[in-house]
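Appendix B, example 12.
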Amino acid sequence: MTNRALLLAALADAPSRVRRPLLARDTTLMLGALCALGLWIVERPGEGRADTVDWTVTPQPLRGPADVDVGLAGTVLRFVPAVAALARGPVTFDGDPRARERPLGPLVTALRALGADVDDGGRGAIPLTIRGHGRVAGGAVTIDASASSQFVSALLLAGARYDGGLDLRHEGPPLPSLPHVAMSVAMLRTAGVEVDDTTPDRWRVVPGPIRAVDVVVEPDLSNAAPFLAAALVTGGQVHVPDWPARTTQAGAALPDLLAEMGATSALDDGGLTLRGTGRVRGLTADLHEVGELAPVLAAACALADSPSRLSGLAHLRGHETDRLAALAHELSALGSDVTETDDGLLIRPRPLHGGVVATYDDHRMAQAGALLGLCVDEVAVQDIATTGKTLPDFVGMWDELLREGR
């Protein structure tokens, strides 16, 4: 949500304000990318809460030459090229070694079809250069976005600024992570952009201005997954303040998914409270729309008293790491009986033992390892600092949770 708000502010018709943004590596990379393209961003202490900040984003004519470091942030890797095509001058993209392996081909093909000048050396991946000419023709384009919903969001977020707007169709296997597309559409509408999504797998964006907004960023609900799962697996209780009553975030599915595994939860004006009942049941679930929750849920399934089947997750092979292979390997190494399927995992719990959980530079794998360490002696998580991708103080928050629990 933070990176979508920043991107829309970059294309808006006046300065925007982004309140209580997520402060993490992914958002820092987005700030760096947009500043490289010429934006002015001013940070001030947040109003009402001492631990927050507000950003005022003043749009400027987008320009190159510029170098953009995408790190391992999918939103920077996919969203910013669609905006850089509107700049004048060359914009070069590169990032972490794993980012060079993440799927990008459908977006590159779409941008070319819409009139952008993209040089990727035929790789369908970074490093690449977009030679901007100050405008993009836009119009109709069809892509296969089954590898990542971010291909759709990238084009939607910039589409209103293309001369002919955007008429985007998805053709291929079902689109994953639809809540993220719904988030993009909702934020565009808040910024005054007309989006027609009444036809399945088709989005039409009317060309025109993007209105400046004053947006308060919601808490990152997916980052709540290991904390809520901690209550489930220990029979404890966790409270997450400011949990929104209505949201497009994928993490909103957590209370229901954890309830199937044995938790109970209550939502009131103060936030969400989830309680474990002392039993962890196995989970059978299609997680196609909420795949980012899979690593923590898989770890919880390894601690359950009955088998689990997680499906709809083939697209996770193109995330920060091949999450299906990584989860199968790391859970098996601790003693669980795990089978990797075409689109998910079969997890048959067995007594677990200690060991080192590798994280593969993946923040969700690190969170999953921390959860296992609550219930299994002598579990060490390799490179826990990788959680800084989306939650820099994960270790401090985890330690505080455990201190309060004692």
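The two ends are 34 Å apart (CA to CA). The mean pLDDT is 95.
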